[in-house]
Design a protein that fits this description.
231 residues; alpha/beta; DNA polymerase, domain 1; Rossmann fold; 9 helices; 2 domains; five-stranded parallel β-sheet
Length: 231
Amino acid sequence: MLALFDIDGTLVVGATDAHRAALVEALLEVHGVDAAAMRITVNPAGRTDGEIVRAILLDAGISTERIDERADDVRDCASRNYARLCPGDLSRFVLAGVPELLHGLSGREGVTLALLTGNYEPIARLKLARAGLGRYFPAGQGAFGSDSEDRAALPKIARRRAGSRGHPYPCERTIVIGDTPLDIACARADGVRCVGVTTGQYGAAELAGANAVAGDAVALREVLDAELARS
């Protein structure tokens, strides 16, 4: 089984201040847009960093062409800013039971753990390293907001990286784990299964489109054990 984990709201909760500040500083540096002074209407939950950045810049009157031209600059600047702003220890933001869940899954034969997150990859990697979870997610695997602004494109990218000899990891043995309806939607777009977790801002009713919904890491372990049994 290829288990693709979201980060914010799924593995950690509340570790967003430095991330938000890094994006705000990048928009000011690259585009001269003071996002901190704007009324931001886009809900970031489940969205990629690039998608959030685009929405803010469009609201500020920046053209699509200019956004596209400077997208890499924003990503690189935000990643540098985050490296400077990120606290040295994010372990207090890790959800209860998550380290035990990942430790148990990483020791299971036939299980591959990877990330599927809207975070730019350098931000995602550092965030999990500072949270003490980075060792469970190997480099070269997963999919990130730096791979595509479109979250629906990410599962296919992650499956390609987890595959071998040009053959993507099979859809029927892939599962997305996330806390938002957009996690469910991206799984559906690629024809893979999804488990919703109510550890973010959405409840069970809002995640009902998933194949299963878990309330915490203990329940998630039970759901994934069942998935392993059927795969």
